[in-house]
Amino acid sequence: MSALERVFGSAAPEPGAVAKATTDPSGASPADGPLAIRKGVRLLVLYAVVVLGFSLVALVVELALGDPFSTGRSPGVSRSFEDAAWHLVTGLAIAVPTRRRALIVLTPVFALAIDVDHVFGSLLPTVVPREAHDLFFLVAIALVFLPLAGRAWTQLAIGATLVHLGADGGSFPLLAPVTTQSWAFPFAVAVVTIVAAALLVGLSGRTPRELVRPAYLVPTAAAVVVILLAGFAVGWIQVFSGA
Ligand SMILES: [Zn+2]
Questions:
Q1: Residue 114 C-alpha to ligand 1 middle, in angstroms?
Q2: Count: domains in the chain
């Protein structure tokens, strides 16, 4: 067993545990239970390390490509608290219908954790703000999480990242460091992103058969609609208030 496997556990299911892989809290799945939450907290730290590592690598590549430092504007403290609450609530909204305690606890904090990349621009210099709000970051998560944590935790990490991006607002450097251009999500893309996030988080703790039951589908659809309507309303309020 490698040192990493000792910290994060083996991504491979125990022999004979295949049939209960999606419900075994001590195995490769964030299905439920205090053990899953404890492992999730360790993986949350890993997630934050991947955010910072990715941001640093992207920054170095951008500088090597000749892109200049910019003075990233950091949001005010009250705006930061509003953003944090919004990401916790939206992560919670897509996790509650799974009725898995570990997912209900961990999805919101994973959904918030990508904003660790605000360190670049707030405390450290950067080329583009929000370096990890990036499609290549999803690839980085998969590359790190699949071997270390297994499929279910990878789905949770990517799902939480997607609900963050879908609910975040503003524009993102989606293809950094290849280009420093930023793109805003059109409404249709936000819909697809949040639906995909709900699906990935659901699949990290439930079987596909469990996800097509009304007990999961109805509250999930309601959560997606409420997130989109609330995001839409906040966008309009910001337009009218000149924020
Ligand atoms: Zn963000």
A1: 6
A2: 1
